[in-house]
Amino acid sequence: MTKFRRKQVFEGIKIADFCWVGVGPIVMSYLADHGATVIHIESATRPEILRTTPPFKDNIPGLNRSAYFANFNNNKYGVTLNLNHPKAIDIARGFVSWADIIGEAFTPGTMDKWGLGYKDLVKIKPDIIMFSTCQQGQTGPWARQPAYGTQLVSLSGFTNLAGWPDRGPTGPFGAYTDSIAPLFGVAGLVAALDYRRRTGKGQHLDLSQFEAGVHFEAPLLLDYFINGRVASATGNRCPHAAPHGAYPCRGNNRWCTIAVFTDVEWHNFCHAIGDSEWTQNSRFSTLLGRKENEDELDKLIAKWTLDFTSEEVMTKMQGVGVSAGVVQNMKDIHEDAQLEHRHYLWQLEHAEIGKHFYDGPPFKLSKTPCELIMPAPCLGEHNEYVYGKILGIPDKEFVELLSEGVFD
Amino acid sequence: MSESLLESYRVLDLTDEKGFLCGRILGDMGADVIKIEPPGGDSSRNRGPFYHDIPDPNKSLYWFAYNANKKGITLNIETKDGQQIFKSLVKHADFVIESFSPGYLESLGLGYEDLSQINPGLILTSITPFGQTGPYSHYKASDIVSMAMGGLMYLSGDPDRPPVRVSFPQSYLQGAAAAAAGTMTAFYYRQISGEGQQVDVSIQEAVIRATLQPRMFWDVAGRIVERAGQYRTALSALSTQRVVWQCKDGWINFPIFGGVAGARTNRALAQWMESEGVSDKFLLTKDWEAFDMATATEAEIRDIEGRLVKFFMSHTKTELLEGSLNKRIMLYPVFTVEDIVTCAQLKGREFWEEVEHPELATSIIYPGAFIKMSQTPCQIRKRPPIIGEHNDEVYRGEFGFSKGEIAALKQGGVV
Fold first, then answer.
1. Are B177 and A183 contacting, i.e. CB atoms less than 8 angstroms apart?
2. Do B151 and A330 touch (CB under 8 A)?
3. Cβ-contact B49, B118 below 8 angstroms
């Protein structure tokens, strides 16, 4: 029986993606994974930074070997265009005529300088949606300040909120805010796309990664405004739970998290660890008691967890209804049975990287699920197809432009 | 007057803290969001911080922050009357957002199959720690567990201590914001096809996406990236680089980079140091364009860093920020919440929104639009509701229940 195939959500939606690095390409990849036609436009003269950032396949650097770049750019066509060449601007304008959405992530003012600012785009296509994203937003005194996402994580408060109270802050790993802004970006962009469908009106979206980021600590900002409190890192402690932390397990650098909130959970926890004598101590029988004696409690639990693997601890705890989970490393993630069940990772074969895994979206649509079908493009891989078939540039002209360095 | 994006669409928000932000995002874009709480209110109304530190379910700043732009009603969906009322609401709703354990709504006869019969265009968004099905789908997970299972925790914190989570819970927000992205994607399909569907969000997966880079190290290069505290390890196998540095009154973020961008910053910093009498020939004359992080050795990096320690320690966060802004140096301070709310950029962007809270006889400042839209601006149009604030409006205004009927429902534990 042939199965009725539904349309992909964004089938027919056309996106010219001038974005680079993290947030912009991630936003467009959500739409690409759900059927939009996305053309990722890059410079060959100044390759985008993720193409030169590890990990590279087998640790051998190469512009087409970074899996970091690849993971945010699957399902997209890839072309090169040197926007500093005057003739490239005409081609960019051709993309505007073709597209529903123009994405860009340059330093504010750059698109204007090229004659590709929002006011220029609407002259070409009045209902165009322009999606701009950068660290600070398009306006404000710091708009043009250069920095990477690994630094914005500090400006937006997260570095200060992870670490141990007796030491300097460490923050969460990496360019954490690069993971926050795209989620807001997708929600806003898709809503704008539907608004345009209903009303015929396009618009300009201005996503500041700084502003999106601070929404993930909004209650702490209110706490400062109202109570004058300045939040700081508290290790793994939680004000209304104990035990609450990561406990060492058998093996090298293996840990399991455990979180006990209620009396029933505490009772079940004690039972799961064999009702050791210390668990009956009255100092630990109430939440307040456990909070007061938490250092000692943590040490006693660690003595017990060390005899088991992290998976065993998790299973024992979950078996009695206590929140617990392995502190998974990336090998564990690749072998995780739950993720396997949900088909979270998608294996695609890339021209130079070979078969490797791409992250799918963290949600599944029951009727129109995502499909990751095309690996990330090599630099300029689809120049001929996109410029010839999509923009309709005649062969002869394409060759001329090529020799003039327009596609460098 | 500008219109809002979603003003003619209704959201029924049944979530707990795992999903609050999803409805808030739709509400910011203009949707008519009704937060449905059990009688007595959400349990996370008891979560601090509180207004003036007074623990009170109508004063939780945690709850406020993620429930602005929502109306509030109470409804016990475990009662027959409650289920009837809920189904009536579903008839005219566009979205239901929920974060119960998988199977719970089905057990009440309110699962996707049931609801889609009432309203085929309905989008049901379900936010859970591991998704609706699979071997871990019934595992219990609070924030720290989701941060662990999603891989972010393994990567964070000092190497000589246990892995750490972010002290303010992040995984629920990751899941809820991902849910907003998924919900709008399903919405677009509904708009073109008339067909609703279920959006099944996994918080674990949302956390994995927040790690960004390390998963690929294992996949294509066979390396497990380890946590390195204030250092960065993922740029090179040969060296680590300090990212977080101490300064006179706090901390700053300054990772060494090579290449064109690094060269501009490193040279500007060296010249700044020289202008203050700290002349370092090496920093001033080094061929930074040719300096490659991938081949630099640990000793080289430590040597360069050693030249900067004193300079940073002799300046405050503010001095280093101002200087870096003037000279376009890639350095940011490690901001506290105080630094964030007082900084010139967010003020300059008119980011903050003051919201009247007449029930507290005050106004409260909230973070504003998550994105600036030229045609349909996001804004806070409603303060977060007090418990059951819109019961009358919804039950009398929309359902036409009499005062007597509402009194009966109240005594029956329905509202």
1. yes
2. yes
3. no
Q: Which of A252, A208, A196 is nearest to B154 (CA)?
A: A252
Tens of pLDDT, residues B100-125? 999 999 999 999 999 999 999 999 99
Name, in order, each residue with C-beta under 8 angstroms of B119's C-beta and a sequence gap of 6 or more: B90, B91, B92, B93, B196
Contact between A290 and A242 (Cβ < 8 Å): yes
Q: Measuring CA to CA, how many Å separate A353 from each of A305, A317, A350?
A: 40, 40, 5
Domain spanning A14-216+343-403: CATH superfamily: Crotonobetainyl-coa:carnitine coa-transferase; domain 1 (3.40.50.10540)
CA nearest to B33, candidates B21, B42, B51, B50: B21
Question: Are B244 and A154 a contacting pair at CB < 8 A?
Answer: yes
Burial class (CB in 10 A: 0-12, 13-18, 19+), A229: middle
Beta strands in A122-209 (DSSP E): 129-134, 203-208
What residue ranges define each of the domains in chain B, with the CATH number in brackets?
Answer: 10-210+353-411 (3.40.50.10540), 229-344 (3.30.1540.10)
CATH superfamily label, A244-334: formyl-coa transferase, domain 3 (3.30.1540.10)
Neighbours of A166 (CB within 10 A): 7
CA distance B216 to chain A (A): 6
**Contact criterion met (CB < 8 Å) for A190 and B187:** yes
Domain ranges of chain A: 14-216+343-403, 244-334
Does the interface ipTM go beyond 0.95?
Answer: yes
Best residue in A26, A50, A170 to probe B by mutation, most B CBs within 10 Å?
A: A170
Name the strand (E) or helix (H) holding A119: helix A118-124
Q: Tell me the pTM.
A: 0.97
